[in-house]
Amino acid sequence: MESPLADACGSLRQTLPGAGVLPGVTRLVVFSDDWGRHPSSCQHLIRHLLPRYPTIWVNTIGTRRVRLAREDAGKIIARLGSMLGLIRSGAQLPAGLQVVNPWMYPGFRRGWQRRLNAAAICTKVNALLGPRLPGERRIAITTVPVTADLRGRLAVDRWVYYCVDDFSVWPGLDGSVLDDMERKLAGQVDAAVAVSPTLQTRLAGMGCASTLLTHGLDLAHWQPRSAKEVGEWITTASGRAVRLERPVALFWGVVDRRLDVAWCKVLAERCGTLLLVGPKQSPDPALEECPGVEMTGPLSYAQLPALAEAADVLVMPYADLPVTRAIQPLKFKEYLATGKPVIVRQLPATIDWADAADVVGDEARLRQILDARLSGGVPAEQLRARGRLANESWTAKAKEFERVVVGE
User: Fold this and answer.
1) Does pLDDT of 155 surpass 90?
2) Which residue of 89, 155, 209, 271 is most buried, as measured by CB atoms within 10 A?
3) Which residue has the higher pLDDT, 341 or 91?
4) For 271-405, where are the E strands, in sequence order?
5) Which pLDDT band holds residue 68 (cuts at 50, 70, 90)?
6) Helix 41-49 to helix 394-406 angle, to the nearest 10 degrees?
7) 27, 56 Cβ separation under 8 angstroms
8) To the nearest 5 percent, what fractions of the chain are helix, strand and coil?
9) How far apart are CA 315 and CA 293, in angstroms?
């Protein structure tokens, strides 16, 4: 027979907006990119904290300058559908996770826009949080500066900024607005985590101390898979069949103006196919017209290991820009875990792994290294250096993240 306490807890779970939450628990409210759209570092970390920390995940919008382009129109339609509840993900959510798409005006440049968005977000999230239970603690985690106006209005006890990019220099974003909002946010949070030393330095310039936490990986996920799952053809997100002319150079991630067109041309010329897998966000038109370059659109996280096994070399042809000097590319350690040749641009985030991959600074060296790896594969010393990936698990990273988040 259930005890009176169990009966009371059962009633709470059924009637309160925070269903399933018990007294004394710590709850998280996370503001980040759309859950399930792609496996971001924040999603990896939160998965490891669930269900111990019941979480409300708030899908937010950025401050992209809206243009009359097909990709922007698609995003606007999808976002409106999510806000209105017309589009729902078919994926099952992990235990302890609740995802919400609050109504938001697509802009923060004007004061009235910021006030409107702050009111809409707080009304929605506070309603989901519901009445505070005895001993309950609430912690907000944000990866986006657009939450700068929520402090004091959202019913949480602690704010943590998980700084993953320098949005002020990100291609296509309203950089000046994001810079202003980030500076306000940095002055309000109780703790901050930065994914790169460059971002740590940026936050320090705003008077915000931060803990460095580089990205992790799920090593088992990236072990070699059967390339037969891919074969000679690949189907794009739009259903178009693409023939993989050998050899294949593979990149996955956002396809935008951070990519160096000159480097991509070299890769396409020396290989049969340069395969760019991921969402397009206004890439350089010259890249789209480059012979040998194929863009698939986004493919699932589960498909990537087999695709990597089918490729001949994994590449990260970023240009050397302020935005790329600040990034900590999630894909880099994933590339290394596949056992494939890896050629990347020399950037602050790649220097520490120069013994495990080919870290290249100019086109001439790119041509030389590419030819060597296509003919000779991965050097034995690089494979040995990759052994330290065993210390980079998301499980270990989540423990470090948890200590900062809860304030231990």
Assistant:
1) yes
2) 271
3) 341
4) 273-277, 293-297, 313-316, 342-345, 358-360
5) very low
6) 80
7) yes
8) 40, 20, 40
9) 13
CA distance readout (Å), 80 to 105, 106, 127, 258: 10, 10, 21, 28
Residues contacting 74, CB < 8 A, separation 6+: none
Asked if 266 contacts 241 with a C-beta cutoff of 8 angstroms, the reply is: no
The pair of three-digit structure tokens given for residue 117, joined into one six-digit string: 């968005």
H helix intervals, 135-244: 175-186, 197-204
> Which residues touch 4 (CB under 8 Å, ≥6 apart)?
none
Our CA angle for 170, 176, 182, nearest 5°, is: 80
Tokens (6 digits) for 379: 């050097």
Least Cα distance to 167 among 339, 364, 354, 323 occurs for 323
pLDDT computed for residue 80 by the predictor: 47
Answer for the pair 40, 33: CB distance below 8 angstroms, yes or no: yes
Instruction: Provide the pLDDT for residue 14.
Output: 35
Domains of the chain (ranges, CATH numbers):
4-216+394-406 (3.40.50.2000), 219-391 (3.40.50.2000)
Output the average pLDDT for the chain. 89
The model's pLDDT over 162-178, given as tens digits with 9 standing for 90+, comes to 999 999 999 989 999 99
For 195, the token pair is: 């994914």
pTM over 0.85: yes
